[in-house]
Amino acid sequence: MTALPITATIAGLLALIMLPLTLQVSMRRAMIGMKAGVIHAAVFGDAGNEGLRNADRAFGNFIEYVPMALILLALSEWRGAPENGLWIVGGAFVAGRILHAISMTFIPLKPAPRGIAMMTTYAALLVPAWWLLSA
Q1: CATH assignment of 5-134, given 3.20.20.100, 1.20.120.550, 1.10.3380.30, 3.40.50.300?
Q2: Contact 41, 47 (CB under 8 A)
């Protein structure tokens, strides 16, 4: 069995980022339910609440990009991509995901941080894809 220590570390860090994103959505849903007097008031959808909508999309965007990034990173590591490059790509992806979560949750009307986060995410997908296709 081949160990993938870089991918494992990045996956662990991403799991630590995912937890507060998940908790934020759950807590916002519960708060909306308590205010409405019906705990299940926001079980589905966003109940018209912008804060919940932003938190839900921050979590959703995270879930949409992380699996493919980890697959690409793992395959690149398995196929012998440069170790330093893997750390840079993985670290950039983690940083981009943190910046994206912050920009979606706390400063949703500021497009620059979100744009930087997405460019970092795109690069972290493109580089390992290139490694895999050019090997």
Answers
A1: 1.20.120.550
A2: yes
- pLDDT tens per residue across span 53-94: 889 899 999 999 999 999 999 999 999 999 999 999 999 999
Taking the C-alpha atoms of residue 45 and residue 42, their distance in angstroms, rounded to an integer, is: 6
Which tokens go with 82? 């440069």
**C-alpha distances out from residue 77 to 3, 6, 124, Å:** 9, 8, 14
pLDDT tens sequence across 85-107: 999 999 999 999 999 999 888 87
